[in-house]
Design brief:
By secondary structure, this protein is α+β, with helices and mostly antiparallel strands. The chain folds into two domains: 173 residues, no CATH class; 384 residues, Cytochrome P450 (Cytochrome p450, Orthogonal Bundle). α7 packs parallel to α22, α11 crosses α13 and α16 crosses α19. The longest helix is centred in the N-terminal third of the chain and has 32 residues. Bound molecules: protoporphyrin IX containing FE and 2-acetamido-2-deoxy-beta-D-glucopyranose (4 copies).
């Protein structure tokens, strides 16, 4: 087309004609134009904000929003599919401008905080005008499909009485009871993590899910070599005990597949949160799993209410004395607040979920890291041996012998085993990339520390303005993999979290303190992980018991432990590849 000869009117006319003749093509062209325009406009805004950052005006800076192509949706696709790795890439490429940056998603601004001092200010400072409530409502609506029943609970009752029960989980009284029950089950069952039964019919659920195969039998009934997929083996072994401790043994007996449903549902967490409807392929089985969980908790709570009122809940619920106080108290508070049954079913289902999506994979990763380093394995065993002992079964004179069991000193595992504890912290640093999400209630200013500014190579600390209605995303994994704070970040170093002053007195032993430092894997503030005190004991407990009771080598990869890759989800990462191992029992130490 010759522009000079025909003038603008003719151009317009011919464009309109082309568009009418090729509607699909012109739709495509329009979309591309809109995207290009969006990219240019957001790019200009971004450059202006970046150049503002270096100006030495005193006031707080505007957080730069990264440029994006797709209107409204913005960075949504990259965020949902890439998670923490996407956020880390962006933070690193921003260099010294990366302490805080923003994404635009679904027409809202998400401020991504990577500087530990700013994260600290947001999470810990009680005066920060932030709330997680809209996010909790959103999760309950999209992930739990609560049919609006949580939103319908009177806010005062929800956030004080019902949510308040969770705070009790951090107290010693809850932890002592819950941990005692967990220790007892671990003492009894670790021997039969793999039972030696060849037929799936005789195997436990976690053995079947881990495809346990007996490779060879030893001299006596107790000794054998078995192959298993380590991740499902541990995830379900732990999940079974955790569910039992939280909801009582009747629940796991009546609903033996509840953990499978929970992980099925969790596998679509990001898609649910993004509002993906359940008829989309791949969502149906997760939605059905969710419905089964909700019905199971409904059934359990029905029975529990009968039980507390002195009525007979029926033969399937013959003993409800071991329902944990958290679940019991929350059920009662929900009912007092006039909640619909679906409110308590989803609300307490969420506790079961929170209990299993982080701790179980962390236990898998920790066990894997310890076995993959023979020196560390040897050292951990030596450190732990006094506190995890094996008790030979007393001869009961019957043909079927009782199984041996462990005798575990849980308090000592936590306070006297710095290598075990250090391995736990380091495992979380590498594999628990949790995220805290908050909403800004009033405009407020956050300021990074001098030290963090220096780490980024800046001369002075900067302040940033966060505006009312914006969201804050704190991806803890971005900091946890930052080489400026954790030298050689990919390396597993169980002594990394040992307090610095021990270097002067490197005798090791029980005086070494293991500290979280700048790592905030438990989140913080009002919504801080309520399972922290429990999970800390739980993880070292399972890891120590397994490490003492079992020998393990990987199958394939020439007998080497190869990192199986990281799949990101709502909780700790899960392995991409199957980790097949060969296990045999240790019968004495
Ligand atoms: C290694 C294991 C675990 C890790 C890394 C972890 C991490 C977290 C994180 C990051 C949060 C969100 C905090 C925030 O938004 O700032 C959270 C919340 C929560 N976690 Fe954990 N968690 C773990 C184990 C557990 C366990 C075993 C339980 C239950 C016994 C539990 C119960 C909860 C609950 C109830 C919440 C919600 C708290 C609230 O909304 O007030 N967690 N957890
Ligand atoms: C740049 O800073 C000035 C004042 O310091 C402010 O008025 C302006 O809105 C800022 N521009 C951007 C894009 O952040
Ligand atoms: C950081 O911002 C400054 C201006 O404030 C700019 O000159 C520099 O190129 C930016 N660095 C990166 C890595 O984007
Ligand atoms: C996006 O948000 C702004 C203000 O928050 C609002 O005025 C606008 O209508 C929204 N646009 C869409 C398409 O939702
Ligand atoms: C337990 O039994 C094993 C072999 O069956 C034996 O080697 C070990 O010494 C016994 N331990 C104790 C404490 O009796």
């Amino acid at each position: 087309m010759d522009v000079t000869q025909h003038g603008p009117v003719a151009i317009l006319q011919s464009t309109v004609n082309t568009a009418l003749n090729h509607p699909l093509l012109s739709l495509l062209a329009t979309l591309i134009l809109v995207c290009v325009y969006t990219r240019i406009a957001s790019g200009i805004r971004y450059s202006a904000a970046i150049s503002n950052l270096s100006q030495s005006s005193t006031g707080p800076k505007t957080v730069p929003i990264l440029p994006y192509w797709i209107p409204w949706l913005g960075h949504g696709i990259s965020f949902v599919s890439g998670g923490t790795s996407f956020l880390t890439r962006e933070a690193r490429s921003l260099g010294q401008n990366g302490s805080i940056y923003a994404l635009s998603m679904a027409n809202s601004t998400h401020n991504v905080v990577t500087s530990p001092s700013i994260a600290r200010q947001i999470l810990i400072d009680r005066n920060s005008p932030i709330t997680m409530e809209p996010f909790v409502y959103h999760t309950m609506k999209t992930f739990w499909d609560d049919h609006g029943s949580i939103k319908a609970v009177e806010p005062n009752a929800l956030w004080n009485n019902i949510h308040g029960v969770l705070t009790g989980m951090l107290r010693e009284s809850f932890v002592t009871t819950a941990i005692k029950g967990t220790v007892q089950r671990v003492e009894e069952r670790t021997w039969n993590l793999v039972s030696g039964s060849e037929s799936p019919v005789d195997q436990s659920s976690w053995e079947r899910l881990a495809n346990v195969e007996i490779i060879s039998k030893g001299s006596n009934d107790d000794s054998f070599v078995a192959e298993a997929s380590l991740f499902p083996l541990l995830r379900y072994f732990v999940g079974n005990i955790a569910t039992d401790v939280l909801f009582g043994h009747n629940f796991i007996e009546n609903y033996p597949d509840i953990m499978q449903d929970l992980f099925e549902m969790d596998s679509r967490f990001n898609l649910f949160l993004a509002g993906t409807p359940s008829w989309i392929p791949g969502m149906a089985s997760a939605s059905m799993a969710r419905e089964r969980i909700i019905n199971a908790v409904l059934d359990h709570h029905d029975a529990y209410f009968k039980y507390v009122e002195g009525q007979d809940p029926g033969p399937r619920w013959s003993d409800m004395s071991d329902v944990s106080t958290v679940i019991a108290d929350r059920a009662i508070e929900f009912r007092k607040a006039g909640s619909a049954p679906r409110g308590w079913a989803t609300g307490n289902g969420a506790i079961l979920w929170a209990m299993n999506i982080n701790a179980n994979p962390v236990i898998f990763w920790m066990v894997r890291y310890i076995y993959s380093d023979p020196t560390l394995l040897e050292e951990v065993r030596r450190e732990v041996a006094l506190y995890v002992r094996i008790k030979n079964a007393t001869d009961n004179g019957l043909p079927i012998k009782e199984a041996p069991r462990l005798d575990i000193d849980i308090a000592a595992l936590w306070t006297k085993c710095p290598l075990l504890k250090g391995a736990f912290f380091e495992t979380m640093r590498l594999e628990a990339a949790s995220m805290s999400y908050k909403m800004v209630e009033e405009d407020f200013v956050v300021t990074e520390s001098e030290q963090d500014a220096r780490m980024l190579g800046k001369n002075e600390a900067q302040s940033y303005l966060l505006r009312k209605g914006e969201l804050i995303c704190i991806p803890h994994g971005v900091h946890q993999s930052d080489e400026k704070y954790f030298r050689d970040p990919e390396r597993f170093d169980p002594r990394r979290f040992w307090a610095k002053d021990v270097e002067k007195d490197n005798s090791g032993g029980e005086d070494v303190r293991v500290e979280y430092g700048t790592m905030k894997v438990w989140g913080g503030g009002k919504q801080m992980c309520k399972g922290k005190t429990f999970a800390e004991r739980e993880v070292v407990l399972f890891a120590a018991a397994i490490v003492m009771q079992w020998d393990m080598v990987p199958v394939g990869n020439g007998g080497k432990w190869v990192h199986p890759g990281r799949k990101v989800g709502a909780g700790a990462v899960t392995p991409v590849k199957d980790v097949r191992v060969r296990l045999s029992r240790r019968e004495a130490w």
